């Protein structure tokens, strides 16, 4: 490829950066404002949620429900009351179980299937790949899926939230594409040394794909942590509700949480807004904690799927 | 066969899940042709011929309303929501500082990882009667705005929620494609006297064309699936007329209302239409000389 040297022509005396002329001042200001507004629109609501959940009761009551910048120090009573052992604590345990167990199962099944499909030349490889690909094209439908879950006896069990979505065909394709791209030499030499298929997968394939597995794991994890509709569909007993359903009932629909539901008995309950924001916070925090570590791998994970899939 | 059984063994559990929850439910669609009664099951429920499809062909007003709402939302999403990340990606791509770009990216990806429940809750806290904006308006002597639960602005509300949640995330693909554009193209066009606008028009956007077409095709397949969780969450506040979409129609009629056969019939037609749309769009893309989703 011949390199075109950047030439300052008579028409444009502006400096060149990466082949593009240096932007003018107006353009730079316009872009800065545009991006600042977008970032603010994303960040400010979160700040409001954190502030309200941490603000002292009097300040929240005085502000009529919402505090942007708590001026009178920090009050953790909202958090204390939701962790007191009532509805929210229970929901947190359910959500934790669904997320941890679900993600583990999902990663295992997705990676094993992806690995198997990446072993080109083995019997049935093509047709099996086709089975996975074709399933991406159609949607089995809400009612039939419900009937299948019912038929398997999963209704009113957290497994109904976990099992039906534990293998995403799309993620299988992404993982497969990545495994296919691993250097053959490493795998072949291990095979010559007598490694079994399982050993190849577990000791070579997976360790070489840590970043991708982490991203896929985040996708599954977030999916399970956020699962709302399947829980609404399959779990009728409110003692089995995950956090998202509690969030819907007590925050979106605005049902008031009393001392009984919170596990506080007859003690005074902090303002509902603070409690609502605290529930909102604990449903956001786990994602926020994992996000920074995996964020830099996003592009890789998404692109392996989109470009090669 | 003997040589390959370990590979097949590894594939089995994952495949079983796909067969059980993607393929096996397809059989359940037979209840679209039945007068399905849960206590009788599929075996013993009576056959109803095409009776369940009458809602569709006779143009039941509630069904037509759901179709109308769904299509309007699809159009809004294609015209407003779809181009938004392209604009953001082009602006981000034109930034000179890598660090700044990465910072902005980490911020705007975030809402994608919030559930719809969280997004709806956050919107209520910001725009609701006692929310952030109305508090501010009241304390400054203005009249509060009635946004949440208002039928007239419901579509705008849904749209802004989708924009907030996924615009940032959707830039990821466009940015990746943009980073592949050969810098020499910019240099060459610059030598030919192209300014920054002309470069965007003649280099950046053509570079994005294949991915835009690909995503539009995929979107077409989803065009009858819009705003399901969002709507289920907010239907109480705004009423069925304004908010019913096809998916909520299936949910409300089938699982809540017990009209299993009718709901399954609507769902079946919906899936069939979606599949046809994707296959057709893909064909058209090939005719136009684009890659499309797959080669077939």
From TrEMBL, chain A:
Keywords: Cell membrane, Membrane, Sugar transport, Transmembrane, Transmembrane helix, Transport. The keyword Cell membrane applies. It is found in: Cell membrane. Residues 92-294 form the ABC transmembrane type-1 domain. Its main location: membrane. It is a multi-pass membrane protein. It comes from the Bacteria. The chain crosses the membrane at residues 91-116, 128-147, 159-179, 200-225, 275-294. InterPro entries: MetI-like, MetI-like_sf. This is Multiple sugar transport system permease protein/putative aldouronate transport system permease protein.
């Amino acid at each position: 490829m011949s390199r075109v040297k950047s030439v300052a022509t008579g028409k444009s005396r502006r400096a060149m950066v990466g082949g593009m002329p240096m932007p003018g001042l107006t353009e730079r200001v316009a872009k800065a404002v545009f991006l600042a507004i977008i970032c603010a629109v994303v960040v400010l609501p979160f700040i409001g949620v954190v502030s309200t959940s941490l603000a002292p009761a009097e300040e929240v009551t005085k502000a009529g429900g919402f505090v942007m910048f708590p001026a009178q120090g920090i009050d953790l009573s909202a958090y204390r009351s939701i962790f007191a052992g009532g509805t929210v604590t229970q929901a947190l345990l359910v959500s934790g179980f669904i997320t941890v167990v679900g993600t583990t199962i999902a990663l295992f099944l997705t990676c094993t299937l992806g690995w198997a499909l990446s072993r080109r030349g083995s019997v049935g490889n093509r047709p099996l790949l086709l089975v996975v690909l074709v399933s991406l094209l159609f949607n089995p439908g809400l009612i039939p899926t419900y009937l299948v879950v019912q038929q398997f006896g999963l209704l009113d069990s957290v497994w109904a939230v976990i099992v039906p979505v534990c293998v995403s065909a799309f993620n299988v394709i992404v993982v497969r594409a990545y495994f296919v791209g691993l250097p053959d030499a490493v795998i072949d030499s291990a095979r010559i040394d007598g490694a079994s298929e399982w050993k190849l997968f577990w000791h070579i394939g997976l360790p070489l794909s840590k970043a991708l597995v982490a991203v896929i794991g985040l996708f599954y994890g977030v999916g399970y942590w956020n699962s709302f509709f399947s829980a609404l569909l399959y779990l009728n007993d409110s003692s089995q509700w995950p956090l998202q359903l509690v969030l819907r009932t007590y925050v979106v629909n605005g049902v008031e949480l009393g001392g009984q539901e919170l596990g506080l008995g007859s003690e005074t309950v902090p303002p509902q807004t603070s409690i609502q924001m605290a529930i909102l916070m604990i449903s956001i925090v786990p994602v926020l904690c994992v996000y920074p570590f995996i964020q830099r791998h996003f592009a890789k994970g998404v692109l392996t799927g989109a470009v090669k899939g | 066969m003997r040589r390959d059984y370990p590979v097949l063994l590894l594939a089995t559990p994952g495949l079983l899940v796909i067969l059980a929850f993607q393929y096996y439910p397809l059989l359940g669609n037979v209840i679209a042709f039945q007068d399905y009664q849960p206590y009788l099951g599929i075996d013993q429920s009576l056959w109803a011929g095409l009776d369940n499809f009458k809602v569709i062909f006779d143009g039941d007003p509630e069904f037509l309303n759901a179709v109308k709402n769904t299509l309007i939302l699809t159009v809004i999403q294609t015209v407003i929501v779809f181009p938004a990340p392209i604009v953001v990606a082009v602006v981000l791509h034109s930034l000179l500082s890598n660090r700044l770009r990465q910072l902005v990216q980490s911020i705007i990806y975030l809402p994608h990882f919030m559930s719809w429940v969280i997004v709806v809750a956050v919107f209520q806290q910001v725009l609701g009667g006692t929310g952030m904006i109305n508090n501010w308006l009241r304390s400054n002597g203005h009249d509060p705005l009635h946004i949440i639960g208002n039928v007239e602005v419901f579509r705008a509300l849904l749209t802004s929620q989708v924009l907030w949640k996924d615009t940032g995330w959707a830039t990821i693909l466009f940015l990746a494609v943009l980073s592949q554009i050969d810098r020499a193209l910019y240099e060459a066009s610059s030598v030919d006297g192209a300014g920054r606008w002309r470069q965007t028009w003649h280099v950046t956007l053509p570079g994005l064309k294949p991915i835009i077409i690909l995503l539009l095709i995929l979107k077409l397949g989803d065009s009858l699936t819009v705003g399901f969780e969002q709507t289920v969450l907010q239907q109480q506040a705004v009423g069925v007329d304004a908010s019913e979409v096809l998916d909520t129609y299936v949910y409300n009629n089938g699982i809540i209302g017990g009209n299993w056969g009718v709901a399954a019939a609507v769902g079946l037609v919906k899936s069939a239409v979606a599949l046809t749309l994707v296959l057709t769009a893909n064909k058209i893309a090939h005719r136009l000389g684009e890659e499309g989703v797959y080669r077939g």
